[in-house]
Amino acid sequence: MLSAYDKSELDVFLLQRLLDLVKLLLTRELRTLLKLPLGELLTGSEEENMRRLKSEVSKEKPLRVICVGDTVCRNVVRAGETSWIKIVDRKEMRKETDFDFHGNRILIVENEPGTISQIAWEAVAEAIKHKGSLLIVRGEEDLLTLPAILEAPDNSIVVYGQPPHMGMVVVKVDEDKKSLVKGRG
User: How far apart are CA 85 and CA 90, in angstroms?
Assistant: First the structure.
């Protein structure tokens, strides 16, 4: 006999499995293409890059700033930016981190490496609606940069790390950038 708690856990599990039936997979060709920056690559030290990013945000006054990746998000938090949206998987270069992220609204989702699950996409869209949101991904968050760009309102900025240790990429979201991400640019 299942308790109410066990039934609730089972319901969440089944919903996750149903939503995971709709999943985008990354091919080798796309992986190669995505190694190219989708925006301006900042290649200075972490501190220099954060100064440049904060200056850009101050100048552009974007509707949302969405940060993808633990290193970028850690630097954002250390720079005192609490209203920016953070998407993390609690790993840096595939190694567990213990940095303590906080958010006004916290969402947790599963997303397998090399994929974008439907539920992860929807979680990105939901996080973007609320400044200061934190989306914790169990699995891998790297590809969630793509739905972040597509779901962000125009005149937003999406920031992500460019591996391996090359810097961070600043994407100014507009219709042209969204078309590029959709493969029509």
Answer: 15
Note if the bond before 37 is cis, omega within 30 degrees: no
Residue-wise pLDDT tens digits, 93-109: 667 787 788 899 999 99
Summarised one tens digit per residue, pLDDT across range 49-79 is: 999 999 999 999 999 999 999 999 999 999 9
Q: The domain containing residue 97 runs over which residues?
A: 4-182
Q: Which pLDDT belongs to residue 25?
A: 62
Cβ partners under 8 Å of residue 99, min gap 6: 70, 74, 77, 90
Residue 114 in contact with residue 26, Cβ under 8 Å? yes
What pLDDT was estimated at residue 97? Answer: 80
Can you give the pTM of this predicted structure? 0.83
Report the number of distinct structural domains present in the chain.
Answer: 1
Burial class (CB in 10 A: 0-12, 13-18, 19+), 98: exposed
Question: Where residue 98 sits, what CATH number does that domain have?
Answer: 3.40.1380
Q: How far apart are CA 155 and CA 59, in angstroms?
A: 12
Q: What is the SS3 assignment for 148?
A: helix
d(CA 126, CA 32): 29
Cα separation, 89 vs 1, in Å, equals 35
